[in-house]
Amino acid sequence: MAEVRKKTILSTVIIYAGFAIGALNTYLFSKQNFFTVEEYGLTRVFLDMVAIMGTLSMLGAQPAIYKFFPFYNRNLKKTENDLLSGALLWGMLGFLIILLAGWLGEDIFIRKFSARSPLLIRYYYWLFPAALFMGLYSVTEAFAWHLEKIAFTNFLRETLFRFITTVLIAIKLTGLISFHTFMICFALQYAIVAGILLYYLVVVQGYKLVFRISRVTRKFFKKMGTLISYVYMGNIVHTIANFLGAILIANTNGLAEAGIYTFANYFVTILQAPQRSIISISIPLLANAWKDKDMATIDRIYKRSSINMLLSSIFIFFIIWLCMDTAVSVFHINPSFLKGKWVFLIMSIYWIIELGTGVNAQIIGTSNDWRFEFFSGVILLSLTIPTNYFLVKQLGMIGAAYSGLISITIYNLIRIGFIWYKYHMQPFTLHTLKLLVIAFAAYGITLLCISSLSGLSYLIVACVVFSVLYLLPVYFLKITPDIEPVLQTLKKRLGLKK
């Protein structure tokens, strides 16, 4: 577990560095007189559509890599391993299907978005190269995770990608390019990170693109096909559930409201940073544990992922919630974005639920019961689409947040129940309850301490007071066994411990 902690810390630092750059980008997008709310909304809805199309186009190649890489790695040399090349070719086939569907469906797209989001129509065809490169990156990323190159892949996706956006924003604000040129460059960002990672795997790591079917592929071909058909649908469902809200808002209420919704959603994604590193590290560990039938390791990963993600997500939520109103005023952000404050609250609740239940999806997805991920995904989709459609129509952007809360809560209850019934494991301990009590007590006391403050002093005092009141009890009560080793490592790195 020490090596896992080390990798988790490094990945989390890289991810938060990326979020720091992302926060700068969000600030520049939302600052008055830099971009319009509609232009910012366009960039967010564009990426949400790309995420769905990229997932669709890869036809489930990533789950096949997650599950079967250990068998390829154990039985084949690097120069014989055809898993990467097979996954890329499979993804290219899927992209051609998406491209055909997009060509046939252009008129429908125009009818749906021309009235309230006409700016989106102009960049319709740029969605496709963006989706292709995003999908190719996700396939190469899945392969690199099994090579334990998690920090590198997180750097590419979370840090470098956002830095490229920062450069594009800076060039746009200097007047060297128009917004139209900015959007074209924005659409091609994934080409850079996908190209870098593919080069790294093929040239640096030596995994050549092998276009000869190996004996491992022949042996597991049918099983891989069955896995892809089930888990692929589950991935599509989960992706649609995450990204459908902003798209429906753009369709029914326009890009401006979609921009406000995604502004709130950006701060929710900060809560998810620990999940991104933990998932990328846990998938190969879980795959190997299932192969070895090591249930103790799976249970330990389940519980620790739950308490660690819950601890960090609650901390980040309360810091943002305490500071949101004042930060908009202090940093001269367009006040229109404050309309998304309650959206942020509701979305944060359901993501805290998602994170607090640990890596249940990854446990199921790497087990022999991965078919259940498909069936639970069908339930999620049957909840997400109708609740999103009706609630967005009735309530606007907050309806999308309520839809997510309803759908994700039920979805996670089903997954927790299945793992408990099938494997007698669940993610919670007494420390879970202690953590919740600490968090709300720290929040209440902080409110009393800052009630008379305003401006920058309010922001500083709020962050410091809440951090102390929250983190000290967490440390002394030993809420998670990972805190002490992390602190010892930090002391050693800082030269405070010999």
Keywords:
498 residues, mainly alpha, Polysacc_synth, transmembrane helix
Following the backbone from N to C, one meets helices and strands in this order, namely HHHHHHHHHHHHHHHHHHHHH
Radius of gyration over all CA atoms, rounded: 23 Å
Query: Could you say which overall geometry the principal axes of the C-alpha atoms support?
Result: globular
In terms of DSSP E residues, the strand content is: under 5%
Number of strands: 0
Global structural class: mainly alpha
Question: What is the subunit organization of this protein?
Answer: single chain
User: Which spans have pLDDT < 50 for at least 5 consecutive residues?
Assistant: none
Q: Quick check: average pLDDT? A: 82
Profile the largest sheet.
none
Helix content: over 70%
Task: Tell me the distance between the termini.
Answer: 22 Å
Count, helices: 21
Number of domains: 1
